[in-house]
Design a protein that fits this description.
Helices cover 38% and strands 19% of the residues. It is of the alpha/beta class. The chain has a single domain, classed as P-loop containing nucleotide triphosphate hydrolases (Rossmann fold). The protein has a six-stranded parallel β-sheet, sandwiched between helices. The chain is globular, with a radius of gyration of 17 Å. Bound molecules: adenosine-5'-triphosphate and magnesium ion. Residues 10, 13-19, 56, 121, 178-180, 206, 208-209, 212 line the site of adenosine-5'-triphosphate.
Length: 231
């Protein structure tokens, strides 16, 4: 059976994981794949009247072709926009990789070809005193997309993140240069450096956009080959 799991990670928080995830989902839908998307942990939620809801999860829910109830998209919704294990502690909750893996596996039982999982923060975000979110990706043997938020300092973050993903035994299906700082000095040279130093495929360079829609972002991306061949 082909791999269904695509884990979206990145160099930091707030660097475009959700933006790139929605672009990839748009592309996958267009290629005829049946998609589902999950944000297992979201820290930074607002009370919608029907429980805590997070904007990332709502965006993923809206674009995935298989419509899931909110709780399945985002099983752990935490109010404070802080490190997830601390937000969980403050709400009297304990996070565990095995429980998050269980939620994700439940989604994969549905008739879908791709389950996209958006991480929280960067690759090595703790979920408790023993585990990190990377353990969830590892347990599911996810193909990983690394989103690089193009700004000063990103070369170091990108290379360290790529090293950590590979050392965890996972396949980097590709990486994306997302221009979060349009005024980054020597942007082209920085992108060329990453293209030279990261052996895995670059799936696109997304400029700083004024009107950020899944379709617009998707227009700058290609699907990882693992998923192209399924369509
Ligand atoms: N290429 C882009 N052009 C314009 N705005 C962008 C671009 N990429 C991301 N943004 C904006 O930057 C902000 C952060 O992006 P996004 O929410 O996708 O980051 P993230 O890595 O998913 O953050 P988090 O760690 O909170 O999940 C958002 O307001 C988003 O609209
Ligand atoms: Mg996000």
């Amino acid at each position: 059976m082909p791999n269904k799991w695509l884990f979206i990670s990145g160099t930091d928080t707030d660097i475009g994981k959700t933006a790139i995830a929605t672009g990839l989902l748009w592309l996958a839908n267009n290629a005829g794949l049946r998609t589902a998307a999950v944000k297992p942990i979201a820290a930074g939620c607002e009370d919608s009247g029907a429980g805590l809801h997070n904007d990332d999860a709502l965006q993923l829910q809206a674009i995935a072709s298989h419509k899931l109830p909110y709780q399945q998209v985002n099983p752990v919704a935490l109010e404070a926009a802080i490190a997830p294990h601390i937000a969980a502690q403050e709400q009297g909750k304990t996070l565990s990789a095995s429980r998050l893996v269980g939620y994700c596996r439940g989604v994969a039982l549905l008739p879908v070809d791709m389950v996209l999982i958006e991480g929280a923060g960067g690759w090595r975000v703790p979920i408790n005193n023993r585990e990190t979110l990377a353990d969830v990706a590892r347990e599911l043997s996810c193909a990983v997309i690394m989103v690089v938020g193009m700004r000063l300092g990103c070369l170091n973050h990108a290379l360290l993140t790529a090293e950590a993903i590979r050392r965890d035994g996972l396949n980097i299906a590709g990486w994306v240069a997302n221009v979060v700082d349009a005024d980054m000095p020597r942007l082209d040279e920085n992108i060329a450096t990453l293209q030279h130093l990261i052996i895995e495929p670059c799936l696109g360079v997304v400029p700083r956009l004024t009107n950020l829609t899944p379709e617009q972002v998707g227009g700058y991306l290609s699907l990882p080959v693992e998923f192209e061949s399924q369509s």
